[in-house]
User: Fold this.
Amino acid sequence: MTRKNRLPFIIISVIFVIAVLVVLPINEGILGQRGMRLGLDLQGGTHLVYQADFSSIEPGTEAEALSGAIAVIEKRVDVFGVTEPVIQKLGEDRIVVQLPGISETKEAKERIGRTALLEFGELVEGEGEEARWINERGEWKPATAVIDGEEVALTSVFFKENTYVTRDDFGRLFLIFEWDEEGSKLSEEITGRLINKPLGIFEGDSALLGDEGMPITPIVRSIITDRGQIEGLSFGEATELSRLLNAGRIPVPLTPIYEQTVSPILGSDFIRMSVTAGLIGLILVLLFMMIYYRLPGVLASGALIFYVSVVLAIFKLIPVTLSLAGIGGFVLSIGMAVDANILIFERMKEELRLGRTLGAAIEAGFNRAWPAIRDSNITTFIVCGILYWLGSSIIASTPVMGFALTLFLGVAISMFTAVVVTRTFLRIFAGTRWGQKTSLFRVYSGKGND
Assistant:
C-alpha cells in the first residue's frame, strides 16, 4: 500500500468502525445512541391530522399561529410521556401528529386538541346585557376590566406556566395558579368589585365542572392580586388541567380531520418483512457484482457494505423516522448505489481493451465516468426535492416525505462510496500481486473474457 492510498484507507476504516458501533446493536448501539426511530406503520400507535381554523386571527399571522400550535402540542405530548413523537406542519393549515405506542385515539385527540383556555365570568345583572354562557348557576358574561384604556377579559392567558395541584390539611384539593403582571391588575379590579359574589370559570362554551358534575362558581372572599386557587375539581381533572395550562394555549382552534390506529402486532410484521426484503436485495446485488465484475465487483461489494453501515448510522444520528415508504427508499438506494460502480467498471473495461495498464485504466474509468455519475445523481436529487416539497405541502403526506429523504441521503452517500471508497480499494489492489492478473478486472462474459 502506497503512502498516497494509506491515509484515505485509514479514514475509510475509521468511519466504517464508528458507523458499525453506532448501528449495532440496532436497539441501542455500542456508542450509546438510541435505537432506530420507527414510524407508526412499523411501531404501532396513533396518527392524527388536524386542520387549523384561522377565521379568528388577523390575516398574515397564519404561519405564526400554526407554529405556535405545534410548539404547544409538542409540550403536551412531552408531558404525557410519548416517546419519539412526530409533530410537523402539513400544507398551509394542517398539523400531523404521530404518537408511537398510543392506541387510544379518543384520549389522544382530547389531550392534544383541547383548547385549555379558562375564561372567567360574572353574572349578568343589568338589563340589555348579553349573556355568553347559561347554566344552572345563572347567566354569565365575560369578567372584564379596563387596563390602559382598553377593556380586557380575564382568562388563563395571563397565568404563569407554574400551576400545580395541592391539598390542604382537610384533604380539599386546590389548583394553584399565579397571575403575570397584567393578569394581576385585571384580577385585582375584577375581584375587588365581586366580593361575596360568584366567579364563573369556563372552558370554551362550557362551564368547568366539579366532582359532582356541577359548574364551578367559587365565591370571591377577598381581592386576588398575584395568585389564586380553584377548588372543586377531581384529582384527575385538576392534574390534567394543570399540565395543559403549563404547556400553553393553542392559539387557533384545531379540528381533527383524519385519524388512524396501527396495532403493534401489524407493525412488527412490517418490520420483519422489511428487514427480510432489504437483506435479500442487498445479497442479490452483492452476488451480481461479484459474479459479473469479478474482483472489482468484490471491492464494490465491500464499498456497498460500507455504504449500508454509514447510511444506517446517519439514520440513527439525525434521527430519521423510518416508515415503510422510507425503507422502500433505502432499499431502492442500495440498488442505485452500484450504478456508479457499473459505469466506472464499464469505462475501465473499454480502457483495458485499448491496451492501457491497469492503473491507467482505473484512473481513466473514474475520470470519464464522473460526468455521467454526477448528472444522473443531480437529477435524482431534484426529484427527491420535488417529492419532499409535494409531501410537505401539496399532498401533505409523511410517507412521501420519508421516501424522498431516505432516497436523497442514500444517493448522496452512494456517490461518496463509489467515487472515494471503491476507487481507494481499486488503487490498493492494483499495486498487489492480484493486480497483475488483469483477467480478474475484466467483465465476465459467459464464454471467456473480453
